[in-house]
Amino acid sequence: MFIKAEWAGFGTISNLPLTAKPEIRNRALQERAALPGQLRAIQSAAIARHLASLPMFQTASTVASYQSWASEPDTASINRGLSQRGAKVLVPIGGLEPGWRVVNGANQWITPESLRDAELIIVPALRVDYRGTRLGRGAGWYDRMLPHRAPYATLVALLFDGEYLTDQLLPRETHDVPMDYVVTPSGIHKVGPLNPLQPLTLCQPLLSRNRATL
C-alpha cells in the first residue's frame, strides 16, 4: 500500500491570519451543507475504505473515534467495523464534564485521561493543511482532550474532497495539535512539518509505527 506525502513545493503559499478562522469555518460549513446527500454517502464510504487500510486501524486495541452528525463524513460504519473486530471504541461526551464513553458499552462517562489508552485517534475536522494544522468547529473540545493522548498515538482527520489544503497554511496557535494523517475519498495523505522544498507529491511505502522509536 502507498500513501501520499505532500508538500507545498510549488507556487505561492498563502499564510492565513488568525482572524480568518471564522470566515474559513463558515465557508466550510456552508460547502458541506450544500453537498448532495448521495455524494456525501459515496465519499464517506470511500473514506471508510481508505481508513480501514491503515495498519494501525487494523491492529489498535483501543481507538478514539467520534459519532458523526449533520454534514460530517459518516463514521457509523467505521465505528461498527472497529467494534466487530474487537477494538474498544471511545467516542466523545460533551456537557459540563467532557469525557468519553465506550461504543456498545454501558454508556457511562469515563474520564478525559482515558484517551491515553488509544493507539489511534480519529478526529473530526473542517480543514487540515499540509503541515497537519486542523480547523474544527471552534468549541475547543479537542484542544482540551488531545493533551491527554499517549505520545505514540496516531492522529487521523477525516475530510471530504477539496477540504485538505495543499496551497494554504491555516493559522496555528500554541494549543493546536497537528494531525499525522488526513483521509479523504481520494486516499491517505501523510501530513506534518515537512520540508517545503520537496516535490509537491511523493509516494512512499506506509510503514507501521513502532512505539519503541517514538
Tags for this model:
single chain; 214 residues; alpha/beta; Rossmann fold; nine-stranded mixed β-sheet; three-stranded mixed β-sheet; 24% strand; disordered C terminus
Secondary structure category: alpha/beta
Q: State the major sheet.
A: 9 strands, mixed
| Named CATH architecture | 3-Layer(aba) Sandwich
CATH topology: Rossmann fold
Mean pLDDT: 83
Tell me the strand order in the biggest sheet: 5-4-3-6-9-12-13-1-14
Q: What is the helical fraction, as a range of percent?
A: 10-25%
Q: Give me the count of strands.
A: 14
Summarize the structure.
The protein has helices at 21-33, 37-52, 55-59, 76-84, 141-145; strands at residues 2-6, 14-15, 62-64, 88-93, 99-102, 120-124, 127-129, 134-135, 154-158, 164-165, 168-169, 181-184, 187-190, 201-205. With 214 residues, the protein is of the alpha/beta class. Strand 12 and strand 13 form a beta hairpin.
Give a structural overview:
With 214 residues, the chain is an alpha/beta fold. The chain has one domain: 3-Layer(aba) Sandwich (Rossmann fold), CATH 3.40.50. It has 5 helices and 14 strands. It has a 9-stranded mixed beta sheet with strand order 5-4-3-6-9-12-13-1-14, covered by helices on one side. The longest helix has 16 residues. The two termini are 22 Å apart.
